[in-house]
Design brief:
Elements (H helix, E strand, L loop, with lengths): L2 H21 L2 H8 L10 E5 L6 E6 L3 E7 L5 E7 L2 H27 L11 H8 L8 E5 L4 H6 L1
Antiparallel strand pairs: 1-2, 3-4, 4-5
Helix pairs in contact: 1-4, 3-4
Length: about 150
C-alpha cells in the first residue's frame, strides 16, 4: 500500500468518528426532518450579578436556531444550537470526498483499468473541517409546569 494511503487511514478513522458525533444527536436530526427547528427564540442570553448589575455571562444567539423537546418527566426543553453553515459546508465536502473514494475504489476493482485519483486525508484537513467559530455548542432552557401545592413549595 502506498505511504500516502497509509497516512490517510488514521485521519479517515477520526473523520468518521467526528461525523458520528455530529449525527448521534438524533433529536436535532428529527427536528430538522420534521421542520421543528425553524424558530429563533432570542438574539442573546445574559446572566447579570444582582449586586453589581454587571453581566456574568453573555451569549450571542443571533446565529442560532432552537427546537423543542418534551422530556419524559413532562419538562419542555428549548435546545438552541449555533447555525454554523461554514462548518456544515466543510463537513459536507469531507463526506463527499469519502464517498467519492468509495466509488472510485470500487470502479478501480471492477474495471481493472487505469488508476483512479483518490483524495488523501490529513489531520489538518479534519481539524479544518470540524473547526467552529462559536464558543458554545448547545444551550438548553428547561421549563416545567408547577401545579397547585407544588407551586407553593417553590
Amino acid at each position: 500500500m502506498q505511504p500516502a494511503i497509509l497516512a490517510s487511514l488514521e485521519p479517515i478513522r477520526q473523520t468518521l468518528v467526528a461525523l458520528a458525533r455530529d449525527f448521534e444527536d438524533r433529536e436535532e436530526y428529527n427536528a430538522f426532518k420534521h421542520s421543528l427547528r425553524l424558530m429563533t427564540i432570542t438574539q442573546s442570553f445574559e446572566l447579570v450579578d444582582r449586586a453589581t448589575g454587571r453581566p456574568v455571562l453573555h451569549r450571542d444567539l443571533s446565529e442560532s436556531l432552537t427546537y423543542l423537546k418534551r422530556e419524559k418527566d413532562g419538562t419542555v426543553t428549548l435546545r438552541t444550537k449555533p447555525l454554523d453553515t461554514e462548518r456544515d459546508i466543510r463537513m459536507t465536502t469531507l463526506c463527499s470526498a469519502l464517498i467519492s473514494n468509495l466509488v472510485r475504489s470500487r470502479s478501480l476493482f471492477f474495471k481493472k483499468g487505469p488508476g483512479e485519483k483518490f483524495t488523501m486525508f490529513t489531520d489538518e484537513a479534519l481539524k479544518s473541517a470540524t473547526r467552529t467559530d462559536f464558543d458554545w455548542m448547545d444551550f438548553r432552557l428547561s421549563l416545567k409546569a408547577i401545579k397547585g401545592d407544588d407551586a407553593n413549595k417553590q
